[in-house]
Design the sequence.
């Protein structure tokens, strides 16, 4: 990739609705740069995975941007992202990294009401694990 070192301002990156997204929910990355950008690229940390967008829109008199949408995040989407853009005659510097965290939602397993009643549990010392709802939390 050919770059004009220092000639183009660094892009910025943000995520909507934020950088901590519940599993299965959508997220949109927005890359911003100067007016006249031909294409934005959203890269993963290792640069082996990226998406290009030629759908560049104007944000103001001196700024343009592009959006990259993920409909339903998975644990595989978690990680570091950054933007770069192409404005002839070359590529910009990279933006700072943005870290996307994918948080699993708490899941409560619904047990029959009879199992929630302590009298339905066998009489053994200590709590009966099958008599209380379970909570599973993942990150």
Sequence:
């Amino acid at each position: 990739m050919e770059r004009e070192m220092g000639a183009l301002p660094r892009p910025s990156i943000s995520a909507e609705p934020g950088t901590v997204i519940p599993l299965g929910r959508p997220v949109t990355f927005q890359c911003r740069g100067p007016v006249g950008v031909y294409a934005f690229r959203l890269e993963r940390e290792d640069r082996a995975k990226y998406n290009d967008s030629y759908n560049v829109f104007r944000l103001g008199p001196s700024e343009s941007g592009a959006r990259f949408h993920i409909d339903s995040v998975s644990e595989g989407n978690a990680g570091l992202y950054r933007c770069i853009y192409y404005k002839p005659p070359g590529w910009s510097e990279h933006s700072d990294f943005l870290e996307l965290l994918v948080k699993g939602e708490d899941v409560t397993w619904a047990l029959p009401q009879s199992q929630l009643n302590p009298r339905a549990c066998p009489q053994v010392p200590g709590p009966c694990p099958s008599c209380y709802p379970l909570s599973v939390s993942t990150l």
